[in-house]
Specification:
It is built from nine helices and eight strands. With about 280 residues, it is α/β, with parallel strands linked by helices. The protein has an eight-stranded mixed sheet, sandwiched between helices. The chain binds NADP nicotinamide-adenine-dinucleotide phosphate. NADP nicotinamide-adenine-dinucleotide phosphate (NAP) binds next to helix 1.
């Protein structure tokens, strides 16, 4: 990965943190994106030290805010540097319905629209690379999920798990549609399931749920080192060169759910995402 510039979102903890470190260990220049500047500085310092790679830096952005995503993209694209890898990793579950600063249901805003908008805004810089890769961290949780295009923000009926499932399904629908849009370019895009990973995931949801999830993770989840393997494989392995529009689990291509492969649903989600972000891929 020498000479490559990689961006990893949600990189101050969990799977993103290990993904960023692994890319730095492979010699890439890495930009970690997160919302907490103090934590970001600390994590960068630790990665620089352990990877013996000084080209690791932090960019602050709350990725549920469209204004912050736009400002971040502006900073990342200043100077016209090509971006070789974008790992859209940030994600969370919200048991109680919340809205982002843009008035959009939080799960949809952070887990899906954030990926959609940041990717679009970085696309010219990704196209400037010889063979850029866009990696979207989805989940097996997408199975059984539905795209409620009539009420995608759960205004009538909200369940945190359902909203999360829908957002991870949206990651896959977005990946497949994006692969089609980019088919005439050298930019590839794939999505993946990292495994059930013992991370900080879910800890923003109050004592009861957090304790339940931590206990479940202690007994049945893989650690974050193993949890980052598929992301690193899809972002960096020579085996994935030229591969686009695929879903990976345990570093192998696999088939995602039937609904995730419905082109019409993907098209409608794309249009809705353009409308809600005010960003048009052209
Ligand atoms: N863990 C699992 O079992 C599992 C399974 C399948 C898929 N996934 C997916 O894997 C991805 C990473 O999850 P994880 O398990 O590593 O979770 P995590 O340990 O909770 O890490 C999430 C990261 O995202 C950051 N983040 C959260 N909200 C943000 C915001 N508004 N703006 C900017 N950064 C924000 C967090 O920052 P702070 O450090 O400030 O909190 C942290 O760096 C997610 O997309 C998730 O859906 C996870």
């Amino acid at each position: 990965m020498e000479g490559k510039l990689c961006i990893v979102t949600g990189a101050t903890d969990g799977i993103g943190r290990v993904t960023a470190r692994a890319l730095a260990e492979r010699g890439a220049e890495v930009v970690l994106v997160g919302r907490n500047a103090a934590k970001g500085a600390e994590v960068c310092k630790a990665i620089r030290r352990s990877s013996r790679n000084d080209r690791v830096r932090f960019e602050q952005a709350d990725l549920s805010s469209q204004a912050e995503i736009r400002a971040l993209a502006k900073r990342l694209t200043e100077g016209g540097t090509a971006i070789d890898v974008l790992v859209n990793n940030v994600g969370a579950i919200f048991n109680r319905r919340r809205e982002s600063v843009d008035g959009i249901e939080m799960t949809f805003a952070l887990n899906h629209l954030g990926y959609f908008l940041l990717t679009g805004l970085l696309l010219e810089s990704l196209k400037a690379s010889a063979a850029a890769r866009i990696v979207n961290v989805a989940s097996e949780a997408h199975r059984g999920g539905q795209m409620d295009l009539e009420d995608p923000q759960g205004t009538k009926r909200y369940s945190g798990w359902r909203a999360y499932q829908q957002s991870k399904l949206a990651n896959i629908l977005f990946t497949y549609r994006l692969a089609a849009v980019l088919s005439e370019t050298p930019v590839t895009t794939n999505c993946l399931h990292p495994g059930f990973v013992a991370s900080q995931f879910g800890q923003n949801n109050g004592w009861l749920f957090s304790t339940f999830l931590k206990t479940l993770m202690r007994f049945s989840a893989i650690d974050v080192e193993a949890g980052a393997r598929t992301s690193v494989h899809v972002a960096a392995s020579a085996d994935v060169e030229g591969v686009s529009g695929r879903y990976f689990d345990k570093s192998r291509e696999t088939t995602s759910s039937l609904v995730s492969r419905e082109e019409e649903t993907g098209q409608r989600l794309w249009e809705l995402s353009e409308e809600l972000t005010g960003y048009n891929y052209g």
